[in-house]
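Q: I'm building a small set of examples for a reading group on sequence design. Run inverse folding on the following structure and report the sequence directly after it, with nothing in between.
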């Protein structure tokens, strides 16, 4: 049984069908809302239960295995019913692990996962590894599992939701970038969230590697119990062994010491991206990639869409899309990376986070903020409580962008970094970022038409 026909559901059906499984698909969405996915699966033998979860397992018949979408909480009554009936529940990345022959590099953390995953994917490709960049980055791991070979590398971005449903999952290299409060609406407590992240290490042994952010005390503490070989990276401290910054260079220091690149030559900007570069350097070192290849990739890698993505400069006002800033910590890093003065647009779905520290990070950089969506009131109140009075509530992203541009002057940067999830209004942060870009494009178009007339 596959529960959830979202991004991973379609390739799951195809792979399981190929392996000879009888497939039952369950989704709370109606057939009409899932029409596109169902059309793609036309010709496959599937039983659908749509628009609801079954009230009992008797409605389905015999089930050997349940593969659950990461968007489905395990606490809902139907999932508890499955657990009580001792039917194995796994997620898509666990099934991909069981089927793939490739070595797995698994990257998690509250922030920086996508950039680090994409960056190490580029490094590996330049090093002529047959590389599959998969997972939470947008390509389901299961879609590459059967075609992968023992000499291949699967670089996998994994979220806390995905790590909740692993059983035997054992990456050759696990990476924990950082841990700050996030998704507490789902995990309920910070301890539960930490436990989910720590699952990435559970099945590793002394033949495997764990890449650890030395600068994050929580991550360092979480790494104490793991059995894999630990490789630390640090932006702030010179380590006895590891990957760190010394004299403005990334340095690899183990049996020998080597300078890789001067940090101001790294194309992606910001302290957080320096941490991502250090993590990627550590992974590449473990996999035997030459320093020259690491250096050349860091000099040319431009980052990922929707993360500090420059969109346009209109009348001297820069527009930056950071829709991937889905929690306060990620958006703080965006603010730190962008030149002042900043007009900030924030808001979206409330994941249970706090915004006081987020507002404190504005000091001297953010001149004003526009807030919208489910968290508008919460952001507005947090701003006033911290003495930041240049905040305005607006109805929707379009109004926010147009108001920000109307209030801007040459030299300003309009930064769209929501600090919240997108799901109150958009299917995902990508759709939200694309909408922001469309709005900016419409402003450019309106000015062109104005000139003509």
């Amino acid at each position: 049984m596959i529960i959830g026909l979202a991004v991973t559901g379609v390739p799951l059906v195809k792979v399981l069908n190929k392996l000879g499984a009888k497939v039952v698909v369950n989704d709370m969405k109606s057939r009409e809302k899932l029409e596109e996915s169902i059309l793609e699966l036309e010709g496959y033998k599937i039983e659908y239960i749509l628009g609801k979860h079954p009230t009992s397992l008797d409605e389905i018949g015999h089930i050997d295995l349940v593969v659950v979408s990461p968007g489905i909480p395990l606490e809902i009554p139907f999932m508890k019913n499955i657990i009580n009936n001792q039917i194995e529940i796994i997620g898509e990345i666990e099934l991909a692990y069981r089927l793939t022959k490739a070595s797995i590099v698994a990257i998690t953390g509250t922030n920086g996962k996508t950039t680090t995953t994409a960056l190490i994917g580029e490094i590996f490709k330049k090093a002529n590894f047959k590389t599959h960049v998969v997972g939470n980055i947008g390509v389901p791991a299961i879609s590459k599992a059967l075609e992968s070979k023992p000499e291949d590398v699967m670089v996998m971005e994994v979220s806390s939701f995905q790590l909740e449903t692993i059983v035997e999952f054992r990456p050759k290299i696990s990476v924990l970038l950082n841990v700050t409060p996030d998704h507490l609406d789902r995990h309920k407590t910070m301890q539960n969230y930490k436990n989910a992240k720590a699952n990435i290490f559970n099945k590793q042994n002394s033949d495997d590697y764990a890449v650890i952010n030395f600068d994050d005390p929580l991550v360092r503490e979480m790494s104490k119990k793991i059995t894999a070989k630990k490789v630390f990276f640090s932006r702030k401290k010179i380590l006895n062994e590891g990957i760190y910054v010394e004299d403005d260079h990334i340095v690899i220091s183990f049996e020998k010491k080597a300078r890789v690149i001067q940090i101001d030559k790294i194309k992606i900007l910001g302290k957080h991206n320096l941490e991502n570069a250090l993590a990627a350097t550590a992974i590449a070192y473990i996999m035997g990639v030459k320093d020259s290849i690491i250096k050349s990739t860091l000099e040319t890698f431009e980052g990922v869409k929707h993360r500090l993505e420059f969109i346009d400069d209109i009348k001297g006002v820069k527009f930056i899309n950071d829709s991937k800033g889905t929690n306060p910590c990620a958006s703080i890093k965006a603010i730190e990376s962008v030149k002042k003065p900043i007009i900030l647009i924030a808001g979206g779905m409330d994941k249970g986070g706090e915004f006081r520290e987020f507002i404190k990070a504005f000091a001297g950089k953010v001149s004003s903020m526009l807030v919208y969506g489910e968290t508008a009131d919460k952001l507005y109140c947090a701003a006033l409580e911290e003495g930041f009075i240049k905040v305005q509530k607006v109805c929707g992203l379009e109004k926010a962008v147009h108001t920000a541009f109307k209030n801007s002057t040459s030299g300003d940067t309009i930064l769209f970094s929501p600090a919240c999830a997108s799901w109150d209004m958009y299917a995902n942060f990508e759709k939200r970022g694309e909408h922001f870009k469309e709005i900016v494009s419409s402003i450019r178009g309106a000015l062109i038409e104005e000139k003509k007339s």
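The mean pLDDT is 93.
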